[in-house]
Specification:
The chain is 72% helix and 0% strand. By secondary structure, the chain is an all-alpha fold.
């Protein structure tokens, strides 16, 4: 599985966690994904998205604090759930996956926003993540 597909699965899981409060153990099985496709990929392919989901949720307080500090003039509760999920998994990567360059994390987040977010959300998310990456 490509890292891109892994990020998409992680985004979907974090969205489900935020929107419906789905239990983490259930999320890590990715039950909404094509079951046959998941079986053929094997557990090794799911390590990356599982790490993103579990790591993000485990560190949610730190991650949300970083996001809140970067959006000083914006109400956290008004963030769109998709944008929030993208920012959360990206901030997790910025803080805890130092082997992945910040530029790659931000570029992938922008792509996710373009694909799944609102029309201009990629600009907002890009700015927030850039601010966080420079403020570490």
């Amino acid at each position: 599985m490509s890292r891109w597909k892994g990020r998409v699965l992680a985004l979907e899981a974090l969205y489900a966690w935020e929107a419906a409060g789905a239990p983490v153990g259930e999320l890590l099985a990715f039950p909404w994904a094509d079951g046959e496709k998941l079986k053929t990929m094997g557990d090794d392919a799911l390590v990356f998205p599982r790490l993103l989901v579990a790591g993000t949720i485990e560190n949610i307080a730190v991650i949300d604090k970083k996001i809140r500090s970067a959006i000083q003039n914006w109400d956290f509760s008004r963030l769109k759930r998709v944008d929030l999920a993208i920012m959360r998994l990206s901030v997790y990567s910025l803080l805890f996956q130092k082997e992945i360059p910040a530029s790659v994390v931000i570029e992938e987040a922008v792509k996710l926003c373009i694909e799944y977010g609102a029309d201009d959300s990629f600009k907002f998310v890009n700015g927030v993540l850039d601010s966080i990456s420079k403020g570490q």
